[in-house]
User: What shape does this take?
Amino acid sequence: MENPRPVKKVVLLHSALGDSRLWHRQVAALGERYEVVAPDLPGWGRSPLPTEPFSFVEFVDALLPAALVGNSFGGSIALRTALAHPDRVSKLVLVGSGLLAWDWTEEMTGYFEAEGAAVEAGDLDAATEVSMEFWVAPEHRDEVRPQQQLALELQTAHDEPDVLWPEVPPLSSLTVPTLVVVGEDDKADFRAIAKHLAEEIPDADLAVVAGAGHLVGLDQPEELNALLLEFLED
Assistant: This one.
C-alpha cells in the first residue's frame, strides 16, 4: 500500500520492563534523520502513576502525528493508538508486541503469578529479579534492573487508578503500514502474537531477529536499527 504521509517524527514506546532509557540505542540511530520522542509512559521513569483514571492512548495521541514504534506493552499501546487514530499514525512498528486480550500459556501465567505474589508481599527486589530472570539476558540486567525497580516503586506508591481503553475496530481494518518484529528467542506467546498480527493486519510484514529475545533493541540493536531505518524510509 502506498503511504502518502512521509515520516518526520518517530515516537518510541518502551516495554513494561523499563522506561524510555531502553531506547537510547535507537534514539541515537534515528535522531539524525527524524525528530525522535521517547516518553516515559505514566507509571515509569520520570512519569508518576496518575491518581485519577487515565488513558495511555490519549497520552500517546498528544505526541502525534508521528510514526509509532512500541515494544511489548508499548507495542500494545501503539497498536491501540493506531487503531483509534489511524489518520495520525504514518507508520507502525510492533516489536515483541503484546495484545490486551490473549490466551496466555502456563509459562506466562506462572510468571504473572510469581511477580504478582512478590509485589503483593511488598518485596519489590524479588519482583524485579523475577522479571530479570524471565525476560532479560544476563548481560543487560544491570542496565534494566534499576528501571524496573523504579517502575514498581511508582506503581505501588498508591492505589492503581482505572486505565481507560477506547473501543477499537478489528486488526483487519487497520490501514497503517506496519512492521512486526519479534526476537527468535522470545517467549512462545510473543512469537505467536507476532505471527497473528502479521497475518491479521492487511499491510504488515514480519521480521524475525536472530539472537534476540523480548528486548530486541538491547539484544540486537544494530539489526533493529537497520530494520527501523529501512521501514521508515521505504
Remarks:
- The chain has two domains: 9-101+170-233, 106-155.
- The chain is about 40% helix and 15% strand.
